[in-house]
Write a structure and sequence with these properties.
Layout: E1 5-9, H1 20-28, E2 31-34, H2 43-49, E3 59-62, H3 71-90, E4 95-99, H4 108-118, E5 123-126, H5 131-138, E6 150-154, E7 168-172, H6 178-185, E8 194-196, E9 204-206
Parallel strand pairs: 1-4, 1-5, 2-3, 2-4, 6-7
Antiparallel strand pairs: 8-9
Helix pairs in contact: 3-4
């Protein structure tokens, strides 16, 4: 019998925000996979390790993804990662791919998931708490009320037009371009807040644009 692939969302950072199902699936899978070069560099692994004992005894796949927007390079990487996972599935081993937040929101995992599924293997997504929901909770406020709209925006891909949308704007994937994002936000007439490393020891909460550092 062939193994199964699970895309497991471990939540935003606080290990206690992992779901019971995520914990159970990770315990049951023989192989763990992460989008990083080694366990110590995988934030998702470190989060799960605080809730699950003896994770270091499991087999491990480090499926590092290059930091680039070049689609050809990325597609080759996803194919290679899927191939390594399939090798384990063919041995009858279940694989849990650990990802921050929820696997369905800007996750590298989904590209690999689609390849593996298209080749006829069983795949399952295990939901996790998204980072922006945890961030709103840490700021003790709601994301939207009544008929307000909610927009999730990949800010490193351009956000000028999106700032004109009504309602709440969630800016994700700023990465090294946080300085450029700040420049764009100077044109925005509205409340601005930011959380970094939500739920982790390094967590920082900023309540205005002026407080946000150039590197975060």
């Amino acid at each position: 019998m062939k193994g199964r692939l699970f895309g497991v969302g471990v939540g935003p950072g606080d290990p206690e925000l992992m779901t019971y199902k995520a914990v159970r699936i990770i315990k049951e899978c023989q192989v763990l996979a992460v989008p990083a070069r080694g366990r110590k560099h995988a934030v998702s692994y470190r989060i799960a390790a605080e809730m699950i004992e003896n994770m270091e005894e499991k087999e491990f796949l480090d499926l590092d993804t290059p930091m680039t927007k070049d689609r050809q390079i990325l597609d080759r990487n996803y194919e290679n990662a899927a191939g390594r996972i399939i090798e384990e599935l063919e041995k009858g081993k279940d694989v849990a791919y650990l990802t921050l937040g929820d696997p369905t929101i800007y996750s590298t995992y989904m590209y690999i998931h689609r390849i593996v599924k298209a080749k006829g293997y069983e795949t399952t997504i295990i939901s996790g708490i998204p980072s922006f929901c945890a961030a709103a909770a840490r700021m003790d406020d709601s994301l939207v009320d009544r008929a307000e709209e909610l927009h999730v925006i990949p800010s490193s891909y351009g956000m000028e037009a999106a700032l004109n949308y009504s309602g709440t704007k969630i800016l994700m994937k700023s990465g090294s371009k946080i300085g450029q994002v700040k420049e764009e936000l100077k044109k925005y007439d509205g409340q601005i807040q930011m959380v970094t490393n939500c739920g982790m020891e390094e967590e920082q909460i900023y309540h205005s644009l002026e407080e946000i550092p150039e590197q975060a």
